[in-house]
Design brief:
Pfam families: PhoX (PF05787). This is Alkaline phosphatase PhoX. It comes from Actinomadura rugatobispora. By secondary structure, the chain is mostly beta strands. The protein has helices at 25-29, 32-35, and strands at 47-48, 55-58, 62-66, 72-74, 77-78, 83-90, 97-103, 126-133, 139-149, 152-157, 163-167, 182-185, 205-210, 217-221, 228-235, 249-255, 271-273, 275-278, 300-301, 304-310, 313-318, 334-339, 344-350, 360-365, 372-376, 383-387, 393-399, 406-411, 418-422, 427-432. The chain has a six-stranded antiparallel β-sheet with strand order 1-2-27-26-25-24, with no helix packed on it. Strands 13, 14, 15, 16, 18 and 19 form a six-stranded antiparallel β-sheet that branches. It has a five-stranded antiparallel β-sheet with strand order 17-23-22-21-20, with no helix packed on it. It is globular, with a radius of gyration of 20 Å. It starts with 24 loop residues before the first helix and ends in an 8-residue tail after the last strand.
Length: 440
Amino acid sequence: MSVSRRGVVKGGAAGALSIALAGSLDTIFQTSASAAGKGEAYGYGPLVPDPKGVLDLPEGFSYKTLSAEGDVISGSVRVPGKHDGTATFTGSRKDTVRLVRNHEQTASGVKPVADARLVYDPAAFGGTTTLEVDREANLVKQEISLAGTATNCAGGVTPWGTWLTCEETEGFGAQTKSHGWVFEVDPTGKRTQPVPITGMGRFAHEAVAINPKTLEAYLTEDAGGPFGLFYRFRPRAHRGQYGAYLEGGRLEAMYSRDLPDLSLAQTPGEEFRVKWVKVPDPSAATTSIRKQFEDGKVTRSQKLEGAWWGRGKAYFVASYSSKEDGAAADHAGQVWTYDPKTDRIRLELIFKPGGRFDGPDNITVSPYGGGVILAEDGDGEQYLVGTTRKGEPFAFGRNAFNDSEFTGVTFSPDGRTLYANRQTPGLTFAITGPWNQVRA
């Protein structure tokens, strides 16, 4: 039975119980309006309504806001909008942290203004900003660190301390250069060049997770007609340093004989052996990469989204799947891991339609409780969703301002602060609190 995200199930409670590992009906359908009077079975307890109407968090947690869309950086240079994928790095001093943040703008919005050496395509409105904050998460400075890219959605951190920013597009009408690439951004600003990493392919990129031992990169694609793929890039370079991926390599797509569509997996703990198939033309000069394969020769998924490397595995997310859209089965979100030691993928978490949470997008591995933090991009209310090491999900934060998605979840290097963005109007949160008190 198809039900609305948090609506009442007609004809009984069976649909509500379909959410995997989510606890009781009270937990599944509990919204922030009722959270003050009920406890959470897992996590950090009920959400406390924010008197400012911005961000609801559990008791003991607090937030600061920084770098809002439209803020003046210097002169006529302003902070672009549509804040998205973000990562943190050690700052210029031991007590500061740098954030590199994407902006998912394509051909409109507050245009990033930067020196010509940082601009790829003057017609594009995407790019990245780099922020530096002190130990208390106060903004010290910020600057445009890449401009002229388009639809910068998510990305990934390299083992050598740079940010890979991914374009979620294959082009737009006003472009002066091709789009659909990955670019590397140096948080220090010293080495960044607006040069696409062509070996990683041209497609609607979402995110990338990198194995620090092999430098292999795992990439997600958010596309339809047909659905997107999960990729592996095996670089020629053997040393990790800025520009290493520009040396090229081999791009491959994932295939499991037992799983042509990721949505067919419905039970957490299911595992599937996979192999990797070489991409004929990574540049997609005449044909989109996902169209270079026949159905049944690769494993597809609707709405592949966030990716993060942690605990020796690549975590990746499928935001939702709908049979009405041509998928093999319905779900409201999946979290997978890929283990390079066994060449297996494992379904870690699934949300079934009708439950409390839906539409997981950006992901980060939490240093507390053994779980992850997910940024929702679903229907209605938007949550930051935590999970325990056993896969039980809980509400960690709620967008009390509007229904815009959360993006860019990432912890500071010391684990004291969780950074997250509200995409529209663009705003970055710095969240602190009693992290060690998670109910795992």
